[in-house]
Amino acid sequence: MSTSSKYLLAVLGALAPLAVVAQTTAPGISCPVLFDGRISYTTQPTDFDKNTSLYNPSYNLGQNQTWDQVISFPPMVPSLFDIPSRTKSFEVTINDQSIFLPGGAPLEVGFRRSELMPATNNGTDATVQGTTTFHWSMRTDLFKPLNYSHEYHPIWHETADYSDSEFTLTLGTPFNASFDPTVHVPKTLRLAGRQSVSPETTFFQVPFDDTVWHNWAVTIGWTTNTLSVWYSTDYEPLQLVAGPSFNNNTGGGDFHVGLMKEPTGPLGIDVVHAGYQESGINEGLIYGGVFIENSANGCVTTSPYTSF
Ligand SMILES: *[C@@H]1O[C@H](CO)[C@@H](O)[C@H](O)[C@H]1NC(C)=O
Ligand SMILES: *[C@@H]1O[C@H](CO)[C@@H](O)[C@H](O)[C@H]1NC(C)=O
Ligand SMILES: *[C@@H]1O[C@H](CO)[C@@H](O)[C@H](O)[C@H]1NC(C)=O
Ligand SMILES: *[C@@H]1O[C@H](CO)[C@@H](O)[C@H](O)[C@H]1NC(C)=O
Ligand SMILES: *[C@@H]1O[C@H](CO)[C@@H](O)[C@H](O)[C@H]1NC(C)=O
Ligand SMILES: *[C@@H]1O[C@H](CO)[C@@H](O)[C@H](O)[C@H]1NC(C)=O
Prior knowledge:
mainly beta, about 0% helix, six-stranded antiparallel β-sheet, globular, disordered N terminus
């Protein structure tokens, strides 16, 4: 019955802090839950604009957009950690309006962005302390395909000062091929480490097959500077596919779940504010089973333990 597993790292065990561990439990998750981003089966797109949303209603989306215009619910089989008739997957889309206006800075006309962030993230909360694991499942929408001539970041963890990210999932054609020299097939998901490390460190990559759910988990040791990657498809239990490896995890910050599309253009341009974006786009990715758990004692949920 129990298909969850725990893994213990000798080094982490030796350094395990005596901090109080949150004991919040949630169905199908065997470790203490710090953020349960699985949305109720009855959730509507407009609910993402409300203060009651599990995700921050204000960030990050186009200046003149509401989440109602960004989120949709295409018919889809449940993801690994979604609970049939209780929680459901959702699609995050980008279009020509998906141009973000950061506080006090010019419009980010180089990018197209729609990313959900946990409403409880404030840069220093419990999700960026000790050792925590970030879970999500993702898959393509054949009706809203991406343009793999561009580079996308469909998941990342940005530092609290917005200057860097501890880990980033990348997809598509790297804007700077030298920065991501391991990529030969653009339609490949790559889990990369700290973005200020150049060229970037790619810990694991896998073809982005349209026909399956891709289940991911990334375990971050916030003070031990370790990173592990877990992966499976459809309803298979997560397997450790990389790590624990060194990664500089300084900086806390926020978990981003959604699309960031880079422009194309010559190396050296300011990608945030310049470059080429074709118009008339209608692109999206489907996400499910988003949660963050406390892995202080080496605990990582690899499969739901409840029988649905
Ligand atoms: C939602 O929160 C924002 C920021 O705290 C506040 O300005 C706004 O009045 C709140 N809206 C509702 C409907 O409570
Ligand atoms: C949003 O609307 C304002 C007012 O019409 C306009 O100045 C601005 O350029 C729009 N932003 C985007 C990203 O289209
Ligand atoms: C962030 O959230 C944590 C936990 O809720 C809280 O203890 C802390 O004071 C918050 N920090 C800021 C800067 O608001
Ligand atoms: C995909 O992106 C490339 C590079 O920006 C662009 O030339 C091409 O027109 C785009 N394709 C589609 C179908 O929009
Ligand atoms: C492209 O990536 C390489 C390798 O990381 C780096 O040395 C170079 O500075 C980057 N080029 C630009 C223009 O950012
Ligand atoms: C991690 O990066 C920060 C910020 O760039 C730097 O100050 C620190 O020395 C780095 N730590 C390690 C262990 O490399």
